[in-house]
Amino acid sequence: MAxxxxxxxxxxxxxxxxxxxxxxxxxxxxxxxxxxxxxxQAQAGADPLLQGIPEDKNPFKERGTCVIS
Length: 69
Prior knowledge:
The protein is an all-alpha fold. The protein is 51% helix and 0% strand.
C-alpha cells in the first residue's frame, strides 16, 4: 500500500502520525521507573521464573525414561 503512494503523500501521513503522537501524555522516567520497579517487586512472589515451578506442576519434567535394549 505504501509503495503505491507518492513521496508527498508518505510525508503527509508521517506528519499526521507525528501530530497524533505529540498529543500523547508523557511522564518523566523518574516517575515511571519507580512505578515499574514497585510493580515488579510486588509481582515477584508469583513469578515462576524467579520462584521456580513446583515439581508436581512442571509440564516439562521428564516423566520416565525409555530404554530400548
